[in-house]
Amino acid sequence: MLDILITSKTRVKLLIKFFTQDTNKGYLRGLAEEFKESTNSVRVELNRLSEAGILDSEQEGNTKSYFANQKHPLFREMKSLVAKYLGFDRLVEVVIKNLGNVQKAYVIGDYAKGIDSGTIELVLVGKEINKEYLDFLIEKAENKIQRKVKVEVLETEPAGLNGVVVFDL
Length: 169
Prior knowledge:
- By secondary structure, the protein is an alpha+beta fold.
- Strand 2 and strand 3 (63-68) form a beta hairpin.
- The chain is built from seven helices and seven strands; from the N terminus they run H-H-E-H-H-E-E-H-H-E-E-H-E-E.
- The strands form two sheets. It has a four-stranded mixed beta sheet, covered by helices on one side. The chain has a three-stranded antiparallel beta sheet with strand order 1-3-2.
């Protein structure tokens, strides 16, 4: 969906990077390496998104660091659009809500960092979750969102779990 509306693959990668999690930051060379793209193509898109006010930047020594402009009027909509593109909304709808005993769900790993790697890592915090039914729901979700889903189920929330909260009771 997002790649149909936005034809630049580099721009789509940047939007995913910065609008998946509010704390994601990046600098030109690091982003070019991460995306396996030329620094020039990344620079062009960073400049376009900065000029539009969608991205903001700050100087850190000799390095210019970029991040999502949370004050932009379309910030929430961009975040929602990226979440829908990645399938987080369907994942919550199909897997989490149908299990019933989930208190919290986190997306961790590559997707929490804004990298569209094709495998979504999910941590569910809840008790008495039916593993067989969970496996069935994961398969159903994978078909809907066209991505692999790996799930870890924990009874209690571990301290310091770093990820994007996609569901919270």
